[in-house]
Amino acid sequence: MQAIRLSTFALYAVFILAAGIFLFPLFSVVSLSMKTADEVFAWPPALLPESLNFATYRYVLQETLVGRMLWNSAQMTFFSVIGAIVISAPAAYAFSRFQFRMHKPLLLLLLVYQMISTLVVAIPLYRYFESLNLLDSHLGVILVYITVEIPFTIWLLKGFFDSIPQSIDEAATLDGANRFQILTRILLPLAKPGLAAAVIFNAIAAWSQFIVPYLLLSKPEILPISIGILNFAPGQSEGEVTIPYLAAASILALLPAVLVLVVLQRFIVQALTGGAVKG
């Protein structure tokens, strides 16, 4: 009994230590966002601000383009996730239910494509979009986001469709349903946890994208928040202490992603245990 208690205590100690390692940087940024310039440069540095100071958040939201940048990120994330789901769901259904020529090589090709870094294609991508007149356009960025998200979404949804018995399709066919109706009215509702997981992963990936918008966008009013917070980096504004503003903008940029994760996180668990990880 004593050995079990010691092992339980050690397990909780490891959990607390791991939580502390991950949460301390976040706590430091929150603390920094509430400090004044004098507190930022005080020595020895204090872990906590002297008071809860939200002036930096008011300044960032009212006097800068952060609000606009958050809206830009929300639009690009929303439309890229919708686009990726609309294109990937029929493709995942086809890979799951049909055996056609080049079935496995195409699946492998999607996996290989997923491994290609955006940095590798940065210069060709820029020149191609320049020729299409899609630079400084949200549409161009959204199209790239969708292209990047499609392979992962197909693999995720295919695994989930594989876990749904094909006898359900056969029963629906006997009742007169066509393929489109089977997909939209039967399989997608049954694959709701997988869809939610795809939405979460793609939304977080799109929200945090840096290379693509940094490459294709240059006008401040159309930048997403992942690029916009660079304007608060030390050295961007000569003679001005921007560290608290940078910390406040970073926290504001983090909140929507955390909110999506908290609201839909139970679907991730269902997806991982319900078939989304099956090949």
Automatic annotation (TrEMBL):
InterPro entries hit by this protein: BP-dep_ABC_trans_perm (IPR050901), MetI-like (IPR000515), MetI-like_sf (IPR035906)
Transmembrane segments: 9-34, 76-95, 107-126, 138-157, 243-264
GO biological process, alphabetically ordered: transmembrane transport
Keywords: Cell membrane, Membrane, Plasmid, Sugar transport, Transmembrane, Transmembrane helix, Transport
Topology of this chain in the membrane: Multi-pass membrane protein
Record-stated family: Belongs to the binding-protein-dependent transport system permease family. MalFG subfamily.
Name of the protein: Maltose/maltodextrin transport system permease protein MalG
Species of the source: Microvirga ossetica
